[in-house]
Amino acid sequence: MQHRGVQFRMREALPGEWHYRFEIDDKKISGKTQTKLQLLAVRRVKDRINRELKRNAESES
């Protein structure tokens, strides 16, 4: 999947537990979120990508 130019991958590791990974500026980020709904897990990963992009933009300023 892709969000704001960032490719990310997700998979359901256990019922209700989603693992994700993405890369921004050669920094690999991975984690997990717990929810039964796949769409909510996708939303949380997109929010995490947005936070990382914002953090990178602020550090470059």
Query: Approximately what portion of the residues adopt beta-strand conformation?
Result: 35-45%
Uncertain regions spanning at least 5 consecutive residues: none
Total strands: the figure is: 4
Q: How is the biggest beta sheet arranged? A: 4 strands, antiparallel
Radius of gyration equals 12 Å
Mean pLDDT: 96
Number of helices: 1
> In order across it, which strands form the biggest sheet?
1-2-3-4
Order of helices and strands: EEEEH
Domain count, please report it: 1
The helix content, as a percent range, equals 25-40%
Shape: elongated
What class, by secondary structure content? alpha+beta
The end-to-end span amounts to: 29 Å
Would you mind describing this structure in some detail?
The protein is an alpha+beta fold and 61 residues long. Helices cover 38% and strands 44% of the residues. Strand 1 and strand 2 (6-14) form a beta hairpin. The mean pLDDT is 96.
Helix/strand layout:
Layout: E1 2-3, E2 6-14, E3 17-24, E4 27-34, H1 38-60
Antiparallel strand pairs: 1-2, 2-3, 3-4
Protein name: Integrase
Summarize the structure.
By secondary structure, the protein is an alpha+beta fold.
List keywords for this structure.
single chain; elongated; 61 residues
